[in-house]
Amino acid sequence: MDSVTQAALGAAIGGAILGRRLGRKAILIGAVVATLPDLDVVLDYGDAVANITEHRGFSHSLFVLTGLATLMALLCARFAPARDISLRRWWSFFALILITHPLLDALTTYGTQLFWPLDLPPVAWPIIFIIDPLYTLPLLIALGIALVSKRVPKACAWGLAISSVYLVMAAGAKTLVEQRLAPVLAEQGLNEAPLLVQPSPFNIVLWRATVIDGDRYYESLISVFDGDHEPQLEPLIRNAEFEEIAMAGQQGQRLDWFAGPFLRYETRPLNGEETLIATDIRLGFPGYHPFSFTLATFNEGAWQLVDTSQAVDNPRDIRIETLARLAARAKGDNAALCASDFVAPEWIAEGTFNRC
């Protein structure tokens, strides 16, 4: 999640636990401590793939953060002026603030390495977009009330309760969408295919489904307000024939560990060389995927793996009219937006341009 949301969540937890004793200081401390796990963004591993896949790694590990919470609690119990606060209370304060950070991150598509240093893929059960105002606003409003009224614990508790209900609603919406999608997948023989269902940007009403089927993948937009409208799968191309080349290198293997089969491949001239590029199709929106990486270049009749991967920027920016169409589709207007509307024509399977 974004830094503002994480800080607001930590501040609300801090105010709920120690607001009665520390007042507004509990909110401030909570906000600062909650941002600590994201300090790993300043680390540069010297490789674009490493930078993206190492983020939310050791600094988001439940093992590391539990240890850090214990250390901070011991220091505060020993040196803090508030001598009447027990070690157990300090530990609850720091542990909940720190651990809820990666747990919330794990509810986004990007996922989180909760069990680092164990060599396990990031944990992800996406029910919320990385920025969702309707989740963040209750926390910010509650913090504002707490700061003005001085009723810190009660206001913070209400903010946490409302934001938690929102997450429950998100989980329910995802379950509903998955149930609507299941018969469509079964009808097309895709019920065992790798599937990702995630919320579209900034809401939990409109959901995006991505299904992998060899050289093809399918995209679909499904709103909780679609009624009897059957989800439509729009076929796109992965260029899976380049997968073997990509997986021959360390960066390609790392991307596979990070994103699984949700990768798309392309070749195009870059800096004067024909370059193999892998794109993580989980993140962003079709046509607006932000994470693409160079993996190999074609020289002397053969593909040569790069020593250091580079990030390839997506030149397209999201416009207001795009967000307006997204909002209309969320309301159940099936003609407002298709999943492949912003995808370049060469990626659409068989050159079809059928409306969803």
TrEMBL record:
InterPro entries cross-referenced by the UniProt entry: Transcription_regulator, YdjM-like
DNA-binding in keyword set: no
TM region positions: 26-46, 58-79, 91-111, 123-148, 155-173
Keywords: Membrane, Transmembrane, Transmembrane helix
The keyword Translocase is annotated on this UniProt entry: no
Family matches, as PANTHER family: HYPOTHETICAL MEMBRANE SPANNING PROTEIN, MEMBRANE-BOUND METAL-DEPENDENT HYDROLASE
Name this polypeptide is given: Hydrolase
